Amino acid sequence: MDTIMKKLIFLLLFMLGSFKCFAFNMQHLNAATQDNNKNIYFSSHDGVYRFDGSHYLNLSTFSDLPRRWTSDVIFQSPGFLYIAYKEKDVWQFNLNTLEATKLSDITAIKLAANNTHLFMLGREQLALLDLETLEVIKPLSKKTKMFDVSASANHGYVMANDGVYVINASSTRLIDNTDVNKGELVATPYGVVYFLNDHMTSYSYLNDVKIVNDEITSARHLRFSPPYFLYYVDRGSINQAEINQLSVLQKSINPRPQAYKDLFVDDEQNLWALDVSHFEVVSSKVRLDRLTAASIYNVIATVNDKTWVGTDDGLYAYSDGKYSALNNLNQQISKLGFSVTALQQESGTVLVTTNLGAYVIDLNTEVVTQFFKGYVINLAIIDKQIYLSTNDEGVQIFSSDLSQIDSGYINKFLPHEIVWATKKLKGKLYIANEKGLISFNDRGDASIELEKYAPVADVQLLGNTLFAATYGNGLFKKVNGKWDSVVSPLYINELHSLSQELYLSTNHGIHKFSLDDAYTNLLEGTGDHSFTPNGILSISDKIVAVSNQGVIRVKRKRHEIVPNSGISYIQTNTKTYLNPETLKVNNSAWLDIALTNYIYTLNDHINYQYRLNMSEWHDIPTPLIQLNKLNPDAYTLEYRSRVDGAVWSKPQSFSFDVSGAWYSSNSAMWFYAFIAIGLIICITGFIFFWLQSFHRVFKSHQTQLQREGLSVAAINLANGIDLCNGNETRLCDGLVKLKKAHDILNPIANSHASLGHNDLATAIDMLHVKCLSRDGIDSEFNVTLGKDVLTKQLQCDIYAVLYHAVENVFKHASATKITVHLNKVGDKLILQIIDNGKGLSILTRSVNFGLGYYVINSIAKEYKQPIKRSSSRKGTKVVAQFPIILQPKPIQSRTKNAQFI
Asked: Signal peptide location in the record (predicted)?
């Protein structure tokens, strides 16, 4: 499914990108011009558009130019556009200041400019506007019809109904007084070239000499291309001539004849053709010599250093753009006509395969001999034997003397009798046929290489990778014994390899593929051509081939290094800046920065990246950087580009400033962040020391309470003892007094773990009994101390930690179970108190003023063993460690007993 989707996407891209054609929402394109920054301007039905290869801008959207139908636009250095509107008005637009100025109310159909004057051609008159004084004069007026105007550096030329004029600032001179019915002209640095009625003329101003070419009987849209070339349209075909002798250099440069509105040549000598609603770059990398015969299936070969073309109408010799039928040979093959499928020279003979059979032509005697009868699709010479791929008889093999060799062994393995191609690669014979690809090794063992419903048209090696072309399912490559589909045209006729590149002949152009590519790429200028097997003659620095239209020469496109990008324009919510070198803007909601490489003929996809103030590089899907809500500050923008798979170009930088209130700048933001962090640190420190002061006050308060409690407890003890010596009533009062004394003394005593005469094990047992006596909570004590006797202080400290931890569970945990473990592990005693209560919150663990908390922590500090507390919604776990400190054994003195002497 992924492969099908890739194919569909490729076909869509292919259909859109067969030509470098740019379409957009414009109609009635009449003229084009280019400024010093490589931007191209088009006149249209709704104003003038600026195009940089990637972006369109209507000049009326950010200037005072009217957004109306324009008839012409021209550029005049150092930075002015002159625009003629169809109904009326001529305007000047300053590309540096973006100021638009109305120059005249004249209705002009064509404009031209030299160093001093603007030529405004009306329907019946010519007006000259002095570019310095803005005064208008009319050197030619009251003509029946004005045809065209053009200007060079110092003077202009006008074609009117009564002839061709040269116009200077103060004079007008007729250089050709022929009555004009139709015609156009174009100025050159040397003079003017004009087509008048039915012939072309080149006029030299310096020598006052004319050269006439009567063979050019139709020409429109004349366009000069430095240094001495001329383009014109002859009945829909674009031709090229040189201006000195008016000799035609190339015919049918465009891939298909069509009607045009105008031609334009940019500063890189790219030829543009304007239609009513679109424009395209006519490839200068392709030369076509159109075949006059109505043949759509053509083949080509070199015969004795001459080029032969095989067509649907027989054999032709091709030389210097002209075709001549080889009538003698054609008559010998068939007087009723035939279609040539392959041509190949072998020594002094030429092998010709056709829809009628296979023939050999003796080049010395020009005698034609048929050696096979039947439809032959292709021809191959393998190991000095002739292999014919036929339409209904499989593979037919002949020796060099044209004796037939039995091919039954090969044909019995073929899944179909229609064979498209036979080829031997690295010792293997491959047969591409209607149902798949079959191979035979040097021992004759047959293998099915590829089975497809669509025919396999050809097979080729690129390096060590085998490729198979199908007519209907596209291109496949064999990787690790498995055939993988390559995104490519579906209908492929033939494969050629050169170095590390594979070339595909298809019904829609020649495509190129490299092993590093993800898909095939159409060679520029070939998309309108259809190719058959044996249609490519040679591949070197240029490809020579024959298509359904004639012989074409295609310059091979080397791997291009993308030139450095530039900033075409910057738009804010208030203003547009064209080709800025630096910028200072007020704080705005958004900023659009348009990048371009000014590559009008690069078909490969270009990737762009940018970063701001040395941050990370960001990919952008289109060459448009969109920045939003920039704080006032100085910024450095870096951007770079690359063709897919190539290295990034050298980063270009652009500095700009965003102004605004100081308190919203980036520096202010850093200052705010610094202040905020400082405040957080101060507040945190204040809270910490504030809590510590609470702890100190609480400890002091507890000490004072303990002192006061001891006094109260002593009084209660004395009163209780005294009352217990009386009657029953006094006895009850005395017990109450003793209970109060106990309540006061108990926490005081346990704060220092006063065990009295009890040892640790006995005290823990008593604590366990106390826990068991509490309702709603289960308790489990696991104590293993061994026989060693611990110091009294250590026992007191362990008990104190255990006691307060248990008391905290009773008071705060809301637990239903408590588990106590006290075990000897190595040289340590590990005490664990675990409950299933509600746990301790962060606040409870941080802000704790309980007595048990201080007792436990103070004991842990004494032993340099921190208390580990872990708490969750499932309960709390307290772990304390104590070193094993044993009670010293008493030293028994040895005394001599006299009775044992």
From this structure: 1-23
The Cα–Cα gap between 118 and 136 comes to 9
pLDDT of residue 862: 81
Question: What sections of 305-369 are H helices per DSSP?
Answer: 327-333
Q: Are the C-beta atoms of residues 432 and 461 closer than 8 Å to each other?
A: no
pLDDT tens per residue across span 796-842: 888 888 888 888 888 888 888 999 999 888 888 899 999 998 887 66
- Cα–Cα dist 96/578, whole Å: 8
Q: How many CB atoms lie within 10 A of CB 729?
A: 9
Q: Computed from CA positions of residues 725, 728, 730, 734, in that sequence, does the dihedral angle turn out positive or negative? A: positive
CB contact set of 113 (below 8 Å; sequence gap of 6+): 74, 76, 82, 119, 131, 151
Q: Which two tokens stand for residue 524?
A: 């520029």
In this structure, what is the dihedral angle of CA atoms 43, 45, 49, 55, given to the nearest 10 degrees? Answer: -130
Q: What pLDDT sits at residue 220?
A: 95
**Rounded CA gap, 486 and 891, in Å?**
96
Q: What is the pLDDT of residues 426-467, one digit of tens each?
A: 999 999 999 999 999 988 899 999 887 679 999 999 988 999
Q: Report percent pLDDT > 70 for the chain.
A: 86
CA distance 866 to 284: 84
Confirm if 805 and 812 have CB atoms less than 8 A apart: no
User: Do residues 578 and 98 touch, judged by C-beta distance below 8 A?
Assistant: yes
Could you tell me if 123 and 147 are in contact, meaning their C-beta atoms sit under 8 angstroms apart?
no
Cis check for the bond before 227: say yes or no (omega within 30 of 0): yes
Give the strand order in the sheet containing 209-213. Answer: 183-188, 191-196, 199-204, 209-213
